[in-house]
């Protein structure tokens, strides 16, 4: 039996190394994705164009404008003279933020009265707008503190914030776990469903079923090479993350690999389930792209936080394996936690494997009738 | 079951819901025979063949293939038969030798036996020069002959072929039939479906299926006499009408 199994794995291996498309997905995609996420997507920005509408035009307002520019995050574009000019910059796309400084800024500041500084951003690009607002707000607070300190006011609350586990708020810390989850799913689920569907499409599946090979062996023989390659991919992404983007693995590497294995099993059973349901490669491709990739990218908490989504999407997010796997990865890699903190997620994945395998097995047997 | 009978089928029936694809067919095939299984597209040939090779379970009826029951001993049958399907059944991206090695492997042949098989098949089909080329690079006729040889790599007692010559040009079909005769001469039983009526003339005995039923079964000559026809084509036209 071992020999027969080996013959099968060898054949599958030939398929993989001779198919450029598969090779590209296997090794080109993870590298490209990590580098793209790493270099192209950045939540930091420099030199955003800012317009200022300064009603005060006094000493303090001038200092505030200097203060804003001093950080390097903002560059002063134009000083506006009326509200009517405000929209022009937004429409032309030359300005991202308008700061409106009220009259009597100087005297209000020193007399400790409430001051309302208006910040106006371009909401058509909400992510950017939010980040700009955060930066500007914190700079305004800084400014106020500085000024008040000079006056030595006895009442002040110093806010000192620290981001645990990702002190510099590097985006690499979130996209490395996310990319691992996504790539493993693509390799395990999409590629295996494709390879099984291909045999069906070409008619070779029939030949295999007529041979004395037990159906279980056919499936195992087909998925084993992909399981191994998926594992290599996970290690490749971890290494890329570690050496190129300095993303650490604080927890146990062994536990991490064990969880990867569990997730690989989930992916493989999803892949075989899809393939028992589809008769052509195209169908398998569509099912895995629409049914697995899209939700895993959008609803897993990888790109957008789950908690801010409508209930129904949150629910879908909670039945996606990637959601749990990303939690596990973040836990082990960034917070360095052990099994006692992530056992719920691990159990959920384990349960998913069982249910999916049962489904696959039933479907596969029905097909043979 | 007499010793020479290798396939025996009684009232074999397959229904899909309301539709009866194969309607109570009965026949026997002798060892070493070339048995032609004829019928128009959709007459139920492929469904019938799938029940014989254990890919599909009969709704009712019984049968024995190579001495094993098709209902209960499908696994035993699978070891003793070869199968060549309508679709091309080798791996295009594997080389000629790798294909032979793989199929030898899944039938549990020893490494030594596989090596010998590769040598024999390559010599017989004159394919030594392309042994290391992917199968995709071969002309269709060569591919089909290779597929036939590979379907017999484990030396089965019976070879089932489901329209093996579809889309192949006439000269290659002739060559192909020569290969079938060689296999039969070695005592192997050949069960072949086709809708080329000229091929029916090459068979020892022929059954003609119409709408799930076997309407005629005899040697090509007897059938022509019975239906007062000069060719199998005519026999078929008279039956199908």
Structure report:
The complex is a heterodimer of chains A (369) and B (241). In chain A, helix 3 links the parallel strand 1 and strand 2. In chain A, helix 7 packs antiparallel against helix 9, helix 9 crosses helix 10 and helix 10 runs parallel beside helix 14. Chain A has 14 helices and four strands. Chain A is an alpha/beta fold. In chain A, strands 2-1-3-4 form a four-stranded mixed beta sheet, with helices on both faces. Chain B has a six-stranded mixed beta sheet, with helices on both faces. In chain B, strands 2-1-4-5 form a four-stranded antiparallel beta sheet, covered by helices on one side. In chain B, helix 3 packs across helix 4 and helix 5 runs parallel beside helix 6. Chain B has 241 residues and is α/β, with parallel strands linked by helices. The mean pLDDT of chain B is 90. In chain B, strand 7, helix 6 and strand 8 form a beta-alpha-beta unit. The interface between A and B is medium-sized, with 24 and 30 residues.
